[in-house]
Write a structure and sequence with these properties.
Length: 213
């Protein structure tokens, strides 16, 4: 199995972006969602985006954002990828993808086999589906894992990734069970909500790459 891509999300300082890149992350995420402890304003996100080194993709995470506001945010930040993490429909994702020309991901909360089957309706509308635990108080960033056994052996209709409660201690097992081609973490590499920890980022990336089959 090839090494999975690694996304470290919820970064809010140039130093944490540099740490994630140095540790081997393929993607770094900026959260623009006011209720989140990882929220960054547009101007700050645009500055942080300039700190993302070549070869690492910048992901802008948004939740149910109005199309005009999203277009303005994208124009200012210039992300490589937009990750929708709310109730955005396949039609909305497809329309944004066609209009922006950007790579588009959509996170879906998965609790049952039916949820997983329903998520495949996004095939054709996206570049990647991201499976997460179902929304709680926040739509994501909750540190809660989904039941990985749901994904074991599943025939996905679209490129995908695994999010939700991943950390250095469990990511290897999550990859072993699910064969995830991309793993995504936020709260699992923090010392407190919104505060990224360089050593945890390093340990996560090492553990994600250590798996062989
Ligand atoms: O990180 C947040 O605060 C957040 C807020 C709103 C939507 C999504 C958010 N985070 C994303 O959720 C998944 C799982 O996060 P975790 O590893 O369980 O903390 C991931 O894609 C985060 O980027």
């Amino acid at each position: 199995m090839a090494n999975p891509l690694i996304k470290i999300c919820g970064l809010s300082t140039p130093e944490s972006i540099a740490s994630a890149a140095a540790a081997g992350a393929s993607h770094v995420g900026l959260v623009h969602y006011a209720p989140s402890p990882r929220h960054v304003e547009i101007a700050q996100a645009a500055q942080l985006r300039r700190a993302v080194p070549p070869g690492v993709k910048a992901v802008l995470l948004v939740v149910n954002m109005a199309p005009d506001a999203l277009a303005q945010a994208v124009a200012a930040i210039r992300p490589d990828v937009v990750q929708f993490h709310g109730q955005e429909s396949p039609q909305e994702c497809a329309a944004f993808r066609a209009a922006s020309g950007l790579e588009v991901w959509k996170a879906k909360g998965i609790k049952t086999p039916a949820d997983l089957a329903e998520a495949q309706a996004y095939a054709g509308a996206l570049d990647r589906l991201l499976y997460d635990a179902p929304a709680g108080k926040l739509p994501g960033g909750q540190g809660i894992a989904l039941d990985w056994s749901l994904l074991a052996g599943y025939r996905h209709r679209i490129p995908w990734g695994l999010a939700g409660g991943l950390n250095a201690d469990n990511v290897a097992e999550a990859i072993r069970q699910t064969k995830a081609p991309l793993v995504d973490t936020s709260s699992g590499v923090e010392s407190a909500p919104g505060i990224k920890d360089v050593d945890r980022i390093k340990a996560f990336c090492q553990a994600a790459r250590a798996i062989q089959s």
